[in-house]
């Protein structure tokens, strides 16, 4: 015989066992004495054993009742703990957030957002992996990531995109390069200097190539790189210049690199990507609010740094 009791029945049994009287137990549970009596009778009938010996003053547990109390305490504790965990999840205080992001966005935006979010959500685990835009779009679409931080997907039928920043494409060179004498340059500058570019599968490469075509230029890069840090190292080694998103300067974080504006201005949209058919978890929704707030603080409109002497 398999006996199944509800959590309400278990709590009623435990309260009566604890207080030893129907009157006090019923008051504690907020029910009438007859209702509590019927609940206990139902339990005893269901398990086929008497749980309490009753007298005029109090009730005492039978051996079967002692056994059930021992088992029920563990069940009630597990039940309470399980729903406490569920309450934390629903409140956004627990869970896991998987973020697929462009490295430049990760460096410029995520540290501050996470530092603000984590103390208030210490039980939320955040996983981050970085790539170029197209793999990020696929990761969100395939439910391998909860949030994507990248440029807009080509199709938004399955993916939802919300722009949070406009990232200007700028000329990146060394701080001791003669180019730092002026504030901005036309795109023809890349015709006259060794040009370093992202690899063809990058959405940034497509964006920059389109700008070069509009300027009437067909330029073969001296180097094609998948990683922005590689481009930064090549520029630092005086091997060329590049057109990179301004946010990448936070990722490169090199004291020997600086930037100047390109005319006409070219910007890329950076936004949050989620699945249309997937409801974000409460923790993810809370983190999205944090991301949007910190995105407003990004210094994307500052002027180029002035020329300084290198140490």
Structure commentary:
The protein is α/β, with parallel strands linked by helices. It has 2 domains: 7-90, Orthogonal Bundle (Arc Repressor Mutant, subunit A), CATH 1.10.10.10; 94-295, D-Maltodextrin-Binding Protein, domain 2, CATH 3.40.190. It has helices at residues 7-19, 22-29, 33-47, 63-90, 103-108, 110-117, 133-141, 189-192, 203-214, 228-236, 248-252, 282-295; strands at residues 52-54, 59-61, 94-101, 123-130, 147-150, 159-174, 184-186, 195-198, 223-225, 241-245, 257-263, 267-275. The strands form 2 sheets. Strands 3, 4, 5, 6, 7, 8, 9, 10, 11 and 12 form a 10-stranded mixed sheet that branches. Strands 1-2 form a two-stranded antiparallel ribbon. A hairpin with a 4-residue loop joins strand 1 (52-54) and strand 2 (59-61). Helix 1 packs across helix 2 and helix 6 (110-117) crosses helix 12 (282-295).
């Amino acid at each position: 015989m398999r006996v199944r009791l509800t959590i309400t029945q278990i709590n009623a049994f435990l309260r009566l066992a604890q207080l030893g009287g129907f009157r006090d137990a019923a008051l504690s549970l907020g029910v009438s004495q007859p209702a509590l009596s019927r609940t206990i009778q139902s339990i005893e009938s269901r398990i086929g054993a008497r749980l309490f010996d009753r007298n005029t003053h109090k009730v005492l547990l039978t051996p079967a009742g002692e056994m059930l109390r021992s088992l029920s305490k563990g069940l009630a504790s597990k039940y309470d703990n399980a729903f406490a965990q569920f309450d934390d999840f629903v409140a956004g205080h627990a869970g896991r957030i998987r973020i697929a992001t462009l490295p430049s966005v990760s460096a410029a935006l995520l540290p501050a957002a996470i530092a603000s979010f984590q103390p208030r959500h210490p039980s939320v685990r955040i996983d981050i992996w970085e790539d170029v835009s197209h793999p990020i779009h696929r990761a969100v679409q395939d439910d391998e990531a909860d949030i994507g931080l990248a440029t807009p997907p080509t199709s938004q039928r399955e993916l939802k995109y919300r722009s949070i920043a406009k990232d200007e494409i700028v000329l990146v060179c060394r701080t001791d390069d003669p180019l730092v004498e002026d504030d901005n340059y036309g795109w023809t500058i890349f015709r006259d200097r060794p040009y370093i570019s992202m690899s063809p599968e990058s959405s940034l490469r497509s964006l920059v190539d389109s700008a070069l075509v509009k300027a009437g230029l067909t330029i073969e890069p001296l180097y094609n790189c998948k990683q922005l840090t590689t481009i930064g190292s090549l520029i630092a080694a005086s091997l060329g210049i590049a057109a990179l998103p301004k946010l990448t300067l936070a990722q490169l974080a090199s004291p020997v690199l600086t930037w100047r504006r390109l005319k006409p201005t070219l910007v890329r949209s950076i936004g949050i990507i989620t699945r249309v058919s997937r409801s974000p978890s409460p923790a993810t929704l809370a983190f999205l609010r944090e991301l949007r707030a910190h995105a407003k603080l990004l210094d994307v409109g500052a002027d180029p740094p002035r020329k300084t002497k290198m140490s």
